[in-house]
Specification:
2 copies of one chain form a homodimer. Chain A has helices at residues 3-14, 19-25, 30-44, 61-87, 101-118, 131-140, 186-190, 204-213, 227-235, 282-291, 297-305; strands at residues 49-52, 55-59, 94-99, 123-128, 145-148, 158-166, 168-173, 193-197, 219-224, 240-244, 256-260, 268-275. Chain A has 313 residues and is of the alpha/beta class. In chain A, the strands form 3 sheets. The first copy, chain A, has a 5-stranded mixed β-sheet with strand order 4-3-5-12-6, with helices on both faces. Chain A binds a DNA duplex (25 and 25 nucleotides) through helix 3.
Chain lengths: 313, 313
DNA sequence: ATCCTTTACGCCCCGCGTAACCATC
DNA sequence: GATGGTTACGCGGGGCGTAAAGGAT
């Protein structure tokens, strides 16, 4: 068995069982791949692919297991290279963080600033997407670390750790009638048209749940994935905004007033996530500790070993 | 990077950093190993071994990580072969069960009988040792499955699942004064010389704890790893025996009388254990289900994924 | 008829073995 | 000097490329 053979297997599946395409993407010849796959199947004593004549038409049950396992072997082998890169002096490498708009815009800048100051040689990528995309990128290896409030804890492949918690805030144009009320209630909120996040973003699930618990149907007139878009439309008078509290800046958002809404919605916990079987370099541990000082290297390692039972805030 | 190179690395460490010995044990040449290790170190950009001149004198910090990771890669690669063997038709393979005397003698025979009837082609090995040995054998790959009451749950590498529970029983020669007492108490037991298991065997820890809780110091005059030895000496009148209840057979042990001791000692839970990262073949799942019917394939798989949090009895 | 895989074949790299050399104890 | 590791070098297997053949749609 050779690692090459496993790469061939996996790439053939990734390319929809098209050996020629796999060959092209690996910059090698198509017969070479066919040959090696044949040899591996012979060594294992099992056909990985179903064939009708000479076409590959599917994956056998055994092949399913073999392919999954092959990916695992390759991931562990890739970790070896990461270990090398981490310890090799001089080499700096790069680090990709997957995250959502809210985190990228309001929580991470300070972290990133500190990180690049400490690691001037590391090329840092911040890749922005939906929470689901963030989880996918972690799983398929596009990004090493993910920061998001939603979706990360839905995957057994990922370890997640609580970073910090935050609440929603209600934002309205200056002079809005809500500002005259004594106390902000969920019922009074439901009287107004609302502007808030898209379904899978930034604690939206908790917003919906709060209304649901009171038997209210909120009138959401606009959803965005982006606090700035929400604030813009609130300022235009389209409705009352519900955003993450850290997205309100009294200076910058001078046309708006914010009302704390901690008592209306469940607290949100923003989580750090990464593949359980990813070997973390020092840069990753460093970034994590800058992001959330309580997540020391020892803490994180204990959680990885401990089977994902994290010490929730 | 080649799998061979990883094997070389690991074998050199296993042989105490002696390349020549490693070469001999792998049936290859010593210069070949030196060369390949050098190439790998170059590829990783990191020295794995410390050298004083030409001798290997130690493992660098990076090398420690590399070696651990190399073993992981090789284990996952070995799993691929297991998958092949499991699905390949005709091939039967072998299965090694590590266990203690008590289990091997009293609990497993029925299981083994059923197993060999169902899998006549599988070569079944039952390897007997101390609970600590059982755990070691599982960790180093000597055995696939382990069955023991002690020690297995001390290791993060192992998944353990409860199989069945049992209690201790007190055995005495016929006509012994204890038989005249109304109720068997821990205090009355402490009056007599005792014969029971060795420190790390068969629930001995719970026996000690029961006396300790009552502030008693039992007079243990003989310890054995083996219920039959204990019974033999009890029959000789050396003392009162405390053994696992299933080790008493009224027919075979006609010279002895047994007193239930369920109320004196904590219940014991015999556990199944195996390496978390071992891919289990159908034969292993079959054996497990014969051993403990509640441990279906689905249950076991859920526990592996679930991070070792087992649904204790 | 076209696309794609397998078979055939030859080159060349590279892993391995032998032999010689060298360092440490 | 004995043990053990590195360097040197040549052989042989095998991985990969090109070319041709053979199924499947």
């Amino acid at each position: 068995m050779k690692l090459q053979q496993l790469r061939y297997l996996v790439e053939v599946e990734n390319r929809g069982l098209n050996v020629s395409e796999a060959a092209a993407s690996l910059f090698t010849s198509q017969p070479g791949i066919s040959k090696q796959i044949g040899l591996l199947e012979e060594e294992l004593g099992v056909k990985v692919f179903e064939r009708s004549g000479k076409r590959l038409t599917g994956v056998t049950p055994a092949g399913r297991q073999v392919l999954d396992q092959a990916r695992r072997v390759l991931r562990e082998a890739a970790n070896l290279l990461r270990i090398g890169a981490d310890f090799a002096e001089g080499s700096q490498g790069q680090l990709t963080i997957a995250t959502t708009h809210t985190q990228a815009r309001y929580a991470l800048p300070e972290v990133v600033r500190n990180f690049v100051a400490r690691h001037p040689g590391v090329r840092l990528h911040v890749q922005q997407g939906s929470p689901i995309q963030v989880a996918d990128w972690l799983i398929n290896g596009t990004a090493e670390l993910g920061v998001a409030t939603e979706a990360l804890d839905q995957h057994a492949e990922l370890v997640t750790l609580p970073c910090y918690q935050w609440s929603h805030a209600v934002v309205v144009p200056k002079g809005h009638p809500l500002l005259l009320r004594e106390a902000l209630t969920i019922t009074s909120l439901a009287e107004f048209p609302l502007v808030t996040y898209d379904a899978t973003f930034t604690g939206r699930s908790r917003i919906d749940r709060a209304f649901e618990r009171h038997g209210l149907t909120p009138n959401v007139v606009l959803t965005a994935i982006d606090s700035d878009v929400i604030k813009t439309y609130v300022e235009l008078g389209l409705g009352v905004g519900i955003i993450a509290e850290m997205a309100y800046d009294p200076m910058r958002d001078a046309g708006l007033a914010a009302l704390p809404a901690r008592h209306l919605f469940e607290v949100n916990i923003t989580r750090l996530g990464f593949r359980r079987d990813l070997w973390l370099r020092r840069v990753e541990y460093d970034f994590v500790e800058l992001l959330a000082p309580q997540l020391t290297r020892g803490m994180v390692e204990a959680t990885i070993r401990g089977g994902g039972v994290d010490p929730s805030l």
